[in-house]
Amino acid sequence: MSAKIDPFHAIAISRAAHRLAAEGRSVIHMEFGQPSTGAPAAAIAEAHLVLDRDGLGYWESVPLKARIARQYIEHYSVTIDPEQVILTCGASPALVLALSCLFAPGDRVAFARPGYVAYRNTVKALYLEPVEIGCGEAEGFQITAAAIEALDPAPSGLILASPANPTGTIIAPEELSAIVAVCRRRGIRIVSDEIYHGLSYTGPARSVLQDEPDALIVNSFSKYFSMAGWRLGWLVVPPDLIDAARARMGNLFLTPPSLAQHAGLIAFDCHEELEGHIRTYAANRALLLDALPALGLRRIAPPDGAFYIYADIGHLTQDSMAFCMELLLDTGVATAPGIDFDPVDGHRYMRFSFAASTDRIEEALRRITPWFAAREPLTGS
Ligand SMILES: Cc1ncc(COP(=O)(O)O)c(C=O)c1O
Question: What spacing in Å lies between the alpha carbon of 67 and ligand 1's midpoint?
Fold first, then answer.
């Protein structure tokens, strides 16, 4: 029997948003974690040149692998061989490669709930058994060493994300080191999704590679580099898994787009432009953190990084999907329902992505403020 995979509900919201826009409605997209800025200018200029001079065959960029390896020395003081870097078509295939290299069908793989929707569904698609660790507001919706210690029996694997989606919370460095220590002692292999590294407002996030050279690290050009549609990412594997990861990449996906690899190399030199995006996100974050409590949304995780705010709307609804759809139809503001991230409590949460421009976020707030003010609280809440 084929694995049962749940839909990504934010996609249904997004489709409805695009339908509204096609009908002439003004829509503000806050449903996906997608920078609205596009690739850095110099990366786009390089892509134009490459299109004219290169046949764009299957390709694996040796200079890009070396540049990514350099990034680990510069940012985390961790030395890796460029051969440990497997170039992928984004973080999504990198996650598939990582799980498939480490685990066999039936193995138990743990991750935080709430968490990125694809963790649960990719684990299920590979016939692994998901172990959801319910993480509440008190822990910043993040996994703790104590929670891993308490798992009985120990799972085979753990997916970590810091900063996380949908909350943007970062695991404190000491806690991360403690999680790694528990995993090492209990024989739990770690896959760390570091796709939101570089996007933090309260200090840089620590890489799991700083504590655990055997961890597999997933990363991508989709977020910090603002290149989601170029479909480029990478996986760092320990030396003993290079052949297994390369074999899987070659057979399942061949290579990432050649054009994206050329552009991605240049994107590493576009620090100033990319830091400008972060200043925009920081301004958007401040705007929302200031405005949302006045809308009655006071129970929100502090977003240390990424570009999300995950808010408790339990006093207004027990059906986050219907709530987000209604908000979209009434105001043109598209958001993501909590049920994508949490099958247990997500019916009373929603996620705002603040990756859009500041004037769009301001306009969204102008639209949703009267809408929230007009909502009747649920009786008993
Ligand atoms: C936590 C997390 N991991 C992975 C991905 C997938 O990213 P990519 O576009 O690189 O496949 C996303 C996309 O939103 C994400 O939020």
Answer: 21
